[in-house]
Every structure is written in C-alpha cells, then in structure tokens.
Amino acid sequence: MAETPTMVNAGTVSADYPLPTRKVRWLGLVFFMVLHAIGIVGTPLYIHYRGVTVPELALFFFFAAVTGLSITIGYHRLFAHSTFKASPIVRLLLLLFGAATFEESALKWSSQHRQHHRFTDTEHDPYGVNRGFWHAHIGWILFWRHRTNYDNVRDLRQSRLVSHQHDHHAWWSIGGGVVLPMLIAWWIGYPLGGFIMAVCLRIVLVLHSSFFVNSFAHTFGAKTFNRAQSARDNWIGALLTNGEGFHNFHHRFPSDYRNGVRWYHWDPSKWCIYILSKLGLAWDLKRTSDQRIAQAAEH
Predict the structure, then answer these.
(1) Which of 26, 37, 243, 263 could covalently link to 269 via disulfide, CB atoms 3.0 to 4.6 Å apart?
(2) pTM for this one?
(3) What b/e sequence results for 181-218 when a residue is b if at least 16 CB atoms lie within 10 Å of its CB, and e otherwise?
(4) Centroid of chain to Cα 103
(5) Where residue 8 falls among pLDDT bands split at 50, 70, 90?
(6) Strand ranges (DSSP E) for the chain?
(7) Does the pLDDT at position 259 exceed 50?
(8) Where are the domains of the chain?
(9) In sequence order, what DSSP letters do the residues of 207-239 get, joined into one string?
C-alpha cells in the first residue's frame, strides 16, 4: 500500500466499489441494544446487589485488554496494513481474540479499512466522517448495507488461517468472545458476573474504543502531518483507542507499525509489537524515517 492514501474523485471510481445503501440492520441493532442494556445497566446493579471480586475484575480486564489489542495490533496493524510480520501462534491468538470483539472477520475488517484509506472523506469511504460523527462512529454499521470488495485483500486470502476465520467467523466470535470467558468465569465460580462484565460490558467498551478511531480521531485534534484529510492527532483519542488516536500520522504513514511516533506517546499497541519482536515472535517492523516525518510536519 502507498504511504500516502490516494484521494479519489467518486466519479472516477469503478463499479467495483458500489456505494452503500440505506438499510436498518435489525439483527445488529437488537444485538447492540441487548449488549448495552446488560453491560451498562446490569454491571452497576450486579455490583450493588452481589458485589465484585478480584477474580471477576481480573477476568474482565484481561479480556478487555487482549481483545482490544487484538484489533489494534492484529486486525489493524498486522492484517490491514502489514506493518510487521508475526509467528503463527501470534497470528492465531490475534485472530481468536479479534473475533471475540464481534467486529467481523479480519478479512472483511481489513478490506473495509483499506477502502477507508483509499477513499478517505469521500462517499466511497465506508465510515467517512464527512457524513457526520454518528455515522462514522456506529451509524454506518446499523443503518447502511455495504457490499465488501475482497479484491483488495487477496494477499490475506492466501492465508489458510485468515480464510478459515473469515469463513467461520461466527464460531470464532462465539467461541473466543462468549464460550471461553464463560468457561473461565464458571471455573472461578462467578458465571453471572463473568457474563455481565467479561462478555457484555467488555464487548461494549471494546467496540466503542474501535469506533472512536473512526469518529473521534477524525473530528478532534491536530492535523500534524497531513492537512488534506480529516484524520487528527489527539492524546485523548490515543487513551480511548490503545494508541490509535495519533491518527493523522497514521493516515500519512499507514505502513508504520507505530501510531504514536514519539517515545512518550501513549501507544500500547506499538509497545506490544516491539516486545513481541524482542521475543522473536514478530519481525520486519516497518518504520518511517525521522527525516520523512520531519518533512511531513513542516508542510
């Protein structure tokens, strides 16, 4: 992929990228409503009447961390942008816990994200903020039908593991996102708390963290490296998204494994990738030169 995404006039786009059509996604809408009701309303009620234990909190925070990072490290930086390479076991775990977020398969996620970079801020951007903050955040999922063009992820389709996760993503999602945490919750003796917090509340929070990359990170902050696009750099956005909030840098240099390019930038995703490389589990980490970064910041 080119380091600077191409801005394309909608009139020049082939029929391979059809525009989305308005359609209420009732299954997704009901799913989201139930998750929010159980997670947001059920959690304080559960804590009030039952209390909360250290094992329950540990289970919740563990799954929130590994599933959220599996999107930013795996779906985004490894699969969508190929910013580094990883061992089979790392790829397997990222696919498992990425599916546990219920954000579709890595193949579909990556295809839509590559389309987002190619057509940023145009009508062919699947979740372009040009249609509003709400649309970019969640409206594009619940009230629009998108036809995904998988031609832009032929490289990923060659992976048997990625293809298997795509072809059976519902089983991967239920297995990693519901069955696994519930088995652990049952084992530690708190199945109800596990379901309310480690499953429902965790999915809600991780989903909104991902959604903030599309909405918040394209609305608030500075255009440090590329003033032509809506992507922004914002440290608050970085806190909300495991480091993805330095989004203007990312849109200018999408092949860099880092989003927070400075050592002090909050970017746990880049730190995890770096640690994996030191353990021999990741390699070929792509970095933009300091000179190119400085030149981009000057213009």
Answers:
(1) 243
(2) 0.93
(3) beebbeeeebeebbbbbbbbbbbbbbbbbbbbbbbbbb
(4) 8
(5) very low
(6) 21-22, 85-86, 144-145, 282-283
(7) yes
(8) 17-298
(9) HHHHHHHHTGGGTSSB-SS-TTSS--B-HHHHH
